[in-house]
Structures are given as C-alpha cells and as structure tokens.
Design a protein that fits this description.
By secondary structure, the protein is of the alpha/beta class. The protein folds into 2 domains: 6-73 and 394-442, Roll (Urease, subunit C, domain 1), CATH 2.30.40; 75-381, Metal-dependent hydrolases (TIM Barrel, Alpha-Beta Barrel). Helices cover 39% and strands 21% of the residues. The protein is built from 18 helices and 19 strands. The chain has a 9-stranded mixed sheet, covered by helices on one side. An 8-stranded parallel sheet has the order 6-7-8-11-12-13-14-15. Strand 17 and strand 18 (436-440) form a beta hairpin. The longest helix is centred in the middle third of the chain and has 21 residues, at 187-207. It binds zinc ion.
Length: 484
Amino acid sequence: MTEAADVHHGRTGAADFVATGTVITADPERRVFLDGAVAVAGSRIVAVGPRTEVEAAYPASRRLGGPRDLVIPGLIDTHNHMAQALVRGMAFEDLPNITRIYIPAEDVLGDDGIRTSTRVTMANLLRAGVTTTTDTTCTPDHEDAVGETALEMGIRCALAVGQRDRTSRLASNYEQIEGRSEYRDDPAVRADNIAHIDDFCTRWAARGAGRVRPYIHAPSVGSVSDEMFGAARDLAERHDTAMMTHINRDREEIELSVSLFGRRPLEHLSHLGVLGPRFLAIHAMLTTAREAQMMAQSGAMLTHAPVVCTDIVSAVTDVVGMRAAGVTVGLGCDTVINDILAVARIAYMMHGQAAGIPLYDPVGFTTEDAFDMATIDGARALLWDHEIGSLEVGKAADLAVIDGENPRLSPRHNPVGSIVRYAAGTDVKSVLVNGSLVVDGGRVLTVDEAALLDEAEKVAQRMREDLTDRRYWPLNHRYRVVDG
Ligand SMILES: [Zn+2]
C-alpha cells in the first residue's frame, strides 16, 4: 500500500510502543498496510501507516510484532456473562440449561467465586486478543466485583446491570390446554431497580476510568415490566449509554409474549417505544422479517452469539438479512467460546453458507463482514466506536498482535480472510488495552495465571458438588472418566 502515514502532528520521537506487521485498520477506508506500523503514546494511537514512516517518526519505542505478524484492532465481545465460566462445561449438552444450571450456579458463586470466574473469563478473552468484553448480569452482588476485576485485569468492559421486576408463567408449559398465561409486576422492585441503575451508572461513569462503562440490562420480556422497559430507555438516554435485552430466544418466550400481549417480543418493545439506537438486542434468533424491519427503522442493534443460538434452540439468526436491512451486528462470546476469532469463523461458516456464494448472490456474507462484526461493528453496537473498534490516530490504543511466524497464517494472500478463516486465539502474541501491555508472549501479565487456575479449580469443584443433582448427564454419553 502506498498511503502516507497518519502521524499525529507535534508528536514525534518517542512513543511507548510501535507495533509492526500487516496492519488491518478497520478504519472508514478499510486500509490494510502490508508492511505497516501503529505507534502508541500513553493511552492513544498516535500514528498508523507504512512501517518505514512510522518508525522514522518514532525511532525510540518498544517494538511489538515482526514482518510476518498481523496487527489488528482489539477484538470486541458484545455479549458475555462473567458468572458462567466455571459452570459452562456442565451446561452445553445438558439442555435446557438456563434455569436448571446457569441461574442456580450464579446464585452459589459468592464474592470470591464471582471474582475468580470473572478473572478466568477475562484471562481467556485477553489471551485471544479480545480487548473489550461485556457483562450482562442479573445479580447485584456481582456488579462491583466484575467492574473491579475488569480494572484489575486491564480489559475494557461494558458492564450492564438491572433486575427482573416481573414474574410470568406460560400456561402451555403447565396446563397444556386450560389456564391462561399470566404475569405479575412488582412496583417496589421496579422503584429499587431504577434507583439502583441510576446510582450504578453515575458511580461507574467515574470509577471506570473510561475503561469500564455502565450499561443497562433489561433481561427479557417475560421478566421485565412494560414500565421498567420505558424507564430503562430513559435511563440509557440520561446516562448516554445503551440497554440490552435477551429477545426472541426460544419458543417459550415467543408463546408467552403472544399469549400475554398479542404481539411477538420485538413487536411488543416496538409498541412500547423502547426500540431505538440505544437498544441492543441479544440473540434474536426467532425474529421475523417484520420485526427485523422494526429494528432497522428504529436504529436498534444486535449482538450475535452464533454458538449459543444453535445451542439453545438450533436456530440461526438472520444476520445477513438484518445487516442488509441496515441493522448493525456485533459478535458475542456468551461464555461458551471466549474467543472472538473462533466466533467470527463460526459466524462466517454459518452465514456464508446460508447466504450463498458472494459472487453469485447480491446479498452475501464474507470474511470481511465477519471481521467488521468482530471489530468496528461491535464497537458501534456498544456505542463506543468513537474510541475503539479500529486503528486510527486519536483512538484508544487497543490492539492485538497476531503471530504470523506460523504455518497456519503464512504465506497469505488475503490478510483479513486469513485471520477469519485460519487464525486461532492462541496465535495472539501481544495485546494492548488503552495503551497498556496486558498480554505478551501469549501470557496474561495482569494476573498470576498458574495461581488463578488453581483457585478456579477449587471453585469449579464446589460448583460440581452443588449442581450434580441438577444435571441430566450422563444420559446419551459414552465416555466415562476412569481412575488413573
Ligand atoms: Zn446472555
């Protein structure tokens, strides 16, 4: 590439880091520098461009990367649950698992358990080049612990909080024919929840040091009152943030919404005036074309966790259709695979196959689409793209250096396609978040990883003991653990 380097005026000579290799910027022109460099001073990117020019401007800086390596924007995980890492291996083929495994597991974690679970998840993410994660919690006791752990681990975190203020009951699950679905809202819980979210957003806007940002979680249509949805929308506006809702996720949710309101879940939220550019839908596998239009017209966005979508309901979100309609879509790990490179590849295989071959189909899905979703579109979905999601001068210095001294990735003809199709999380060598080196040599620098794994093993053992009775396993399994 022959583009001139963007060098921040007035700053030359010393930067803290210069990362070199093939630089994939994800900037508005989607520039790729085959022999490029990114210079970082303090928390900011100060230069992006051809290596020779950036190195000439910043000769005395620590080097990251090498000629065959790749430098990409820090990857963005738009949906996750820090409280589920230590139980996920019990749940993925033990369906349905949300109320039977995940929620009871979160309840027994305790303060030390949530911190350990969060550290393990964040270490897992950082090693895979994920610089921004999202926590969507329902447990008030976990909130500060997750935020404090993110500060300690050095990752960026969108921390979404909010309680359920509605209990609901789907008639067809109980009576089959007789009886009606019903719900009961609790105004006292709602008032507490609103005050709590307001306070949380104010506190963490200051405490998060720009790295942990407060968001609002309105868990689902079956567990949140109409009034609370409206309040969440208003709180999001007031605190300049977004709200997140699990939506159109399974059969029971659709049936409940239709039986209670005569509307499907997204139609119901549209009716309440909740959809908009501050609304992030989670999953949305069972979304109709009409609902997708409602999302697009309102500016609502989507977080897509392809593995969980197929885990929960064996349904594939119409990501291609939603993107074509103008919906911004980010990727989410949702605990099961804390590696956005893997998630991007799965999304590419899933939607690329469904959309057909791009050359023959006017609406296709390419490796570049998957890469955008893992970077700049994820930043947009979190309303954070003014700071992160691409390598541009003035943005926060969040980047990952990928090892290209590696037969999986070299030689290559198409850097973006090679990353999406071939790179693994373990190929990530170095990671900067907000200008701080948090991973080097593939190891997390902000925690003692060996001690963390020992500690995690103890908490996992406790969960196994607490939850064994709730499991269906070993139904349908042939493999048996034997001694030795
Ligand atoms: Zn979730």
